[in-house]
Design brief:
- By secondary structure, the chain is α/β, with parallel strands linked by helices.
- Helix content is about 40%, strand content about 25%.
- The chain has a 7-stranded mixed beta sheet with strand order 9-8-10-11-7-12-13, sandwiched between helices. A 6-stranded antiparallel beta sheet has the order 3-2-1-6-5-4, with helices on one face.
- It is globular.
- The two termini are about 20 Å apart.
Length: about 375
């Protein structure tokens, strides 16, 4: 298995799928491909699951487990985020490859404004996107940036811990949900008593966690977290809709005062077939956008404000970044069009602004560290 994992990583795999009755498959450049010829037995997958589970108490009840998350490291090879599940009554394992090195913004192809966003002293920064869109890598890059430049106490709450941060200029306390604390909610409440400057929350799923995260941002902490939404406007609406109708007006006010930025991501197949490029929408929250968050009737204005703020604030819409990726020859026009918020509007903008590059320009820049 060591050799199989090593070969998969060398080929640029982002995920491994290991299932009883099937060959091992790896997601390489976004496509799921078989990397072995021999099918695995139920017992082979069960034995591998036992090796991956870190706690003896969980290994002893392996036959009772239905869904289980953990992280696992192989010396000299790397770390993996592991999900052990049941399908058709037998075990399956999905392993996400976690790079050993903490990525920098430029390694990931993220816009330079993210370094300025990470320098905020307080407030809330949200990184959004579907599963597998590189949110964890972006948050790790933010923590890495802070750690290398500022004297802070960073507390992370993760399920499971993925990137390992060593203390540089900052002290980084990483807590694993289920091992170091019982839940995101419990860990977040405790974090407020641990003298943090920055709190990273792996995911905000429920009203209590969102409410406490807002309180943390309101009391002078920088809170970084993720939401499973596709763009900035949807993120704002989702966070507000979690609360009862009678509380939503106040939540709008709180969110408008605390939000510093929303970074939304999508991964697209690169034109040269070498990994994937990130398409990124960045909403830097300005005073005008704060007014739009407060007033539900003005929510749709946020789209235009993001585009208008590109030069002054460094914000950008998905369409703006997609056009840039096409014109730089990094992504095919059809791929970018399919990823746009409104494909027909995107096509019109490309024609109007003289885009739709055939990719003749130099393919410089991004190397595609995201989920290659």
């Amino acid at each position: 298995m060591h050799e199989i994992f090593k070969a998969a990583i060398e080929r640029g795999a982002s995920d491994l799928h290991i299932k009883a009755g099937d060959v091992i498959r790896a997601r390489i450049h976004g496509s799921l491909q078989p990397i072995t010829q021999q099918k695995l037995t139920e017992e082979q997958v069960r034995q591998l699951a036992l090796r991956l589970i870190p706690h003896e108490r969980d290994r002893q009840r392996i036959d009772e487990l239905l869904d289980y998350d953990c992280s696992w490291g192989l010396p000299g090879l790397g770390r993996f985020r592991v999900n052990i599940l049941r399908q058709r009554g037998s075990f399956m394992i999905v392993m996400r490859v976690i790079p050993i090195e903490i990525p920098a913004f430029e390694d990931l192809g993220l816009p330079p404004v993210l370094s300025k966003i990470a320098e905020n002293e307080r407030g809330m920064i949200l990184v959004t996107g579907v599963t597998g869109s590189g949110k964890s890598s972006t948050m790790a890059a933010m923590i890495g940036y802070i750690n290398a430049r500022m004297n802070k106490h960073v507390v992370t709450l993760e399920n499971p811990i993925e990137f390992l941060h060593r203390d540089v200029r900052s002290s980084v306390t990483q807590r694993d949900i289920g091992t170091d604390t019982n839940s995101f909610m419990t860990g977040l409440r405790a974090a407020l008593r641990q003298d943090p400057d920055v709190i990273l929350i792996g995911e905000m799923r429920d009203t209590e966690t969102i409410d406490t995260a807002l309180k943390a941002a309101e009391t002078g902490h920088l809170v970084i977290s993720t939401v499973h939404t596709t763009n900035a406007v949807q993120t704002i609406s989702r966070l507000i809709s979690v609360f009862p109708p009678e509380e939503q007006g106040m939540v709008r006010i709180r969110l408008s005062e605390s939000a510093q930025a929303v970074i939304s991501q999508r991964l697209l197949a690169r034109r040269d077939g070498k990994g994937r490029a990130v398409a990124c929408e960045v909403m830097v929250v300005t005073s005008t956008i704060r007014d739009c968050i407060k007033d539900p009737a003005r929510t749709d204005e946020i789209y235009d404000l993001i585009e208008e703020g590109k030069d002054q604030y460094g914000s950008q819409s998905f369409d703006q970044h997609l056009m840039e990726l096409v014109n730089r020859g990094l992504v095919d026009f059809e791929v970018a069009k399919a990823a746009a918020n409104k494909p027909s509007d995107f096509e019109l903008k490309m024609h109007t602004l003289g885009g739709r590059s055939s990719g003749a320009q130099a393919m410089s820049g991004v190397t595609g560290m995201f989920g290659s």
